[in-house]
Write a structure and sequence with these properties.
Blueprint (H helix, E strand, L loop, with lengths): L2 H21 L17 E6 L4 H14 L6 E6 L2 H14 L6 E5 L3 H6 L3 E2 L2 H7 L10 H5 L2 E2 L2 E2 L2 E2 L3 E7 L1 H7 L11 H11 L5 E3 L4 H11 L16 H15 L10 H6 L3 E7 L14 E3 L11 E4 L1 E6 L6 H16 L2 H5 L8 H4 L19 E3 L5 H9 L2 H5 L5 H18 L2
Parallel strand pairs: 1-2, 1-3, 9-10, 12-14
Antiparallel strand pairs: 3-13, 4-13, 5-6, 7-13, 8-10, 8-11, 8-12
Length: 421
């Protein structure tokens, strides 16, 4: 996706979805999506409407062939529509899905708005088969709020670095000797490559790039889980460094399309999500994947999110159907390899993480350093994300002063928390 379009969409989606969540309910209008299901059917809403949605549908079809008491019906809904619809149906108690996949960073706000049901009783009654040691720690961590389990992870999907091995061999042959790409090494490669009009690093989804660097540098986006910390020395250093790369022609320039440059062999490092893997099938240039670029070779942070299964409050969901949900989630523990091979994702199931099949996938390097995965599950993450989206590209491309941009983002986040909008 074009970088500018991606940024615009991310702002629009963030605005609409956060507003709907905080409203807690909406005007009841008509809906073409019904969550009603037969007595022995679990209705699953997901924001998976692309090829990953097809993969999920295929996995569910395999589960249904096992003849469970409760078969699963997959209802993929465009993310913005789904997140907008959820508060209304939960408030009305009608057409509430039995099970839903949401991005884990939304869970704290859903809990604050009293919209979710905890899994704790159902897991306990089942014999605690759904437990921490069966999942990636980061995916499991972000499904809990105040020591209650509200989410069960499907995956932990991360923003990493794609690189061109041929270009790297030419301009930085020793960079990956230690398996880590540092910002100093990006500069070194860029200085060597720019004579051939090849950029070292792509300016892509700058919000998540900035967040990863903030965490790498020892910062965070909240000081206590409530107060935001957007305007920090760590954020300033991240943006200042990238601005210098743009100025020195080490990074891509305003108007460039990093994906196309990378696919055509004109970019050495392309920071992007593991979910973009399948988009490189037609690339003319060779590529590999590794951890996100870091300031400190001893501190790796791959910005991540996690698709978590949650249960919104639903008066029609009884204990028997809840057990059916638990049965489905247990099946996925052992049967989510396709989520890696077909969707290009990083399944949270440790059974998959430790399998020989997963080890063959290009994103399998993530399994070697799971502590590098980090999900920002701050309850006001959406506010921070939107405020950063408004300033990061302009600051990096020299259209806005970095200090003033961060001050603006800090104030906007504080104001939105205070107003609840």
């Amino acid at each position: 996706m074009n970088r500018k379009i991606k940024t615009i969409l991310s702002v629009v989606l963030s605005t609409l979805t956060i507003t709907s969540l905080l409203a807690g309910c909406g005007k009841g209008g008509s809906s073409t999506t019904s969550a009603s299901a037969s007595k022995n059917e679990i209705t699953l809403w997901t924001p998976l409407t692309g090829p990953d949605g097809d993969t999920m549908t295929s996995m569910i079809a395999e589960y249904n062939k096992t003849n469970p008491k409760y078969k699963v019906k997959h209802v993929p809904i465009e993310a913005n529509d789904m997140y907008t619809k959820i508060p209304s149906v939960v408030s009305s108690g009608k057409n509430v899905p039995d099970l839903t996949i949401v991005h884990a960073e939304r869970i704290p706000l859903f809990v604050k708005n009293d919209m979710l049901v905890s899994y704790d009783d159902a897991i306990s009654k089942d014999g605690n088969n759904i437990k921490e040691e069966n999942y990636l720690k980061e995916g499991w961590r972000v499904g809990a709020v105040d020591n209650k389990r509200y989410g069960v992870p499907l995956d932990v999907h991360s923003y990493i670095t794609y690189y061109n091995p041929d270009l790297l061999a030419k301009y930085g042959p020793h960079v990956l000797d230690d398996g880590v790409i540092t910002m100093d090494e990006v500069k070194e490669v860029g200085e060597a490559a720019k004579k051939d009009k090849i950029a070292a690093i792509g300016v892509d989804w700058m919000r998540v790039m900035t967040l990863a660097w903030i965490k790498q540098l020892g910062g965070d986006i909240t000081s206590d889980g409530t107060k935001p910390t957007v305007n920090t020395p760590q954020a300033e250093k991240a943006l200042t460094t990238m601005k210098s790369f743009v100025t020195d022609k080490i990074a891509t320039q305003d108007g460039d399309d990093p994906q196309q440059l990378f696919m055509n062999g004109k970019l050495v490092f392309w920071p992007e999500g593991i979910w973009m893997r399948n988009g490189l099938k037609d690339a003319k240039a060779p590529w590999k994947m590794t951890n996100f670029i870091t300031f400190d070779k001893n501190k790796l942070v791959n910005w991540s999110s996690s698709h978590n299964f949650v249960m919104f409050k639903n008066p029609a969901r009884d204990a028997d159907k809840t057990q059916g949900i638990i049965d489905f989630l247990k099946w996925l523990q052992a049967n989510s390899l396709k989520w890696a091979t077909d969707a290009g994702q990083n399944p949270a199931s440790m059974a998959v993480q430790t399998s020989a099949e997963f080890a063959k996938e290009p994103q399998a390097f993530l399994a070697k350093e799971p502590e590098a995965l980090h999900v920002f599950n701050y309850q006001y993450y959406g506010y921070v994300a939107e405020s950063l989206d408004k300033i990061v590209l302009d600051t990096v491309f020299g259209k806005m002063d970095i200090k003033k941009g961060l001050e603006q983002a800090q104030k906007e986040t504080e104001d939105r928390i205070a107003s609840g909008k």
